[in-house]
């Protein structure tokens, strides 16, 4: 598939042809190998959230809902019960993104595995599909997420949309449609009306729920399309207009030839990826230096970052661990006090104690467009 015709191009046509092609043709083995590694990472991220209150709340929700636990065949994290596919996708997607430790794709500008695997697994179990079909559908779905993310572009993200939820819903839809043998184009037109999620939710339980909702919406869109429903053929134009999309046609260059999701990144820290360069800079001091550091002797610390991150991970006064994951100041203070950024909430920090507040007050965050987007100076 070559460069799209800008006059008559419809992303849904391109993506439905792509999915149909690889329903029969094999996905390149290296791309499937990447997907296997992502599957392992996704499962670990989900299991790591066993003590997280978000996981407990989602399991309670599934049990209390008629379409939830015990009413289907799809597996749910931490439960011997099963659920209907849409509910299982919602619950597992939310839980696996609860720690914010799952993979990131910077072309997509979001988290792909936490959306595509919950949807694909739920549907594969419900439809009795084998592992190979599951992995292929997930890989084609993941590529869809990257292509739609690039098509929407950074303007979409900077306008306040969360690509994990918006572009992510399309990947869940494609994977679900392939596993259900549902028509892909109607599935995508339906999910376009469901795909939403805002960056304003960062630092709250809705951040991981954006992933879960996108997974559930993808499953439901495929179910509705299989039942015979469809959406407007002009819906993607509406998406561009209402969601500040760029409409970057180069996003679909060599679709089916180049597999862009293969450049996915995995995290070393359970917090916003935009803070990781700062964390690594501080950790480069070495564990011995950090252990010997007297934080009371620190006068000022300046963290210099690219301006794009100021609206994402610069919460100045985090009140919860979820907010702390998006706070340069809090995470810097955490490292300087010898804590880790891996896994669950550090004990005894929230509400912030006087020592933490005092240290945070001595940390300045400065925007400088001369700093590379993935670097920080401390």
From TrEMBL:
Q: Which PANTHER family match?
A: 2-METHYLCITRATE DEHYDRATASE, 2-METHYLCITRATE DEHYDRATASE-RELATED
* GO MF, one annotated term: lyase activity
Give the protein family.
Belongs to the PrpD family.
User: Which InterPro entries would you find in this protein's record?
Assistant: MmgE/PrpD_sf, MmgE/PrpD_sf_1, MmgE_PrpD, MmgE_PrpD_C, MmgE_PrpD_N
Residues of the MmgE/PrpD N-terminal domain: 14-236
Q: In which domain of life is the source organism classified?
A: Bacteria
Q: What is this protein called?
A: MmgE/PrpD family protein
Boundaries of every MmgE/PrpD C-terminal domain copy: 269-372
């Amino acid at each position: 598939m070559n460069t799209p015709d800008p006059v008559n191009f419809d992303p849904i046509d391109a993506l439905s042809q792509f999915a149909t092609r690889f329903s029969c043709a094999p996905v390149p083995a290296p791309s499937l190998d990447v997907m296997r590694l992502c599957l392992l990472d996704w499962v670990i991220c989900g299991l790591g959230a066993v003590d997280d209150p978000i996981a407990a709340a989602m399991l309670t929700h599934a049990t209390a809902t008629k379409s939830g636990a015990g009413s289907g065949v799809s597996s749910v994290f931490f439960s011997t019960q099963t659920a209907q596919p849409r509910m299982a996708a919602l619950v597992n997607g939310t839980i696996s993104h609860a720690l914010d430790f799952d993979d990131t794709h910077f072309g997509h500008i979001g988290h792909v595995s936490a959306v595509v695997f919950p949807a694909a697994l739920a549907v594969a179990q419900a439809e009795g599909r084998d592992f190979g079909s599951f992995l292929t559908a997930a890989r084609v779905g993941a590529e869809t997420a990257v292509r739609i993310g690039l098509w929407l572009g950074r303007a979409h993200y900077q306008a306040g949309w969360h690509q994990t939820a918006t572009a992510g819903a399309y990947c869940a839809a494609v994977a679900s449609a392939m596993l259900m043998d549902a028509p892909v184009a109607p599935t995508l037109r339906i999910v376009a009306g469901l795909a939403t999620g805002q960056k304003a939710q960062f630092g709250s339980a809705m951040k991981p729920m954006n992933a879960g909702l996108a997974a559930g919406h993808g499953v439901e869109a495929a179910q509705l399309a299989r039942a015979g429903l469809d959406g407007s053929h002009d819906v993607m134009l509406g998406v561009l207009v209402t969601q500040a999309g760029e409409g970057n046609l180069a996003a679909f260059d060599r679709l089916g030839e180049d597999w862009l999701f293969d450049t996915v990144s995995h995290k070393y820290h359970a917090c916003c990826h935009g803070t990781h360069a700062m964390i690594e800079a501080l950790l480069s001091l070495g564990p011995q230096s950090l252990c010997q550091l007297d934080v009371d002797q620190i006068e000022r610390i300046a963290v210099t970052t690219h301006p794009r991150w100021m609206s994402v991970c610069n919460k100045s006064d985090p009140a919860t661990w979820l907010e702390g994951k998006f706070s340069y100041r809090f995470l810097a203070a955490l490292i300087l006090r010898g804590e880790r950024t891996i896994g669950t909430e550090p004990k005894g920090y929230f509400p912030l104690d006087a020592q933490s507040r005092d240290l945070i007050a001595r940390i300045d965050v400065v925007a400088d467009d001369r700093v590379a987007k993935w670097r920080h100076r401390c």
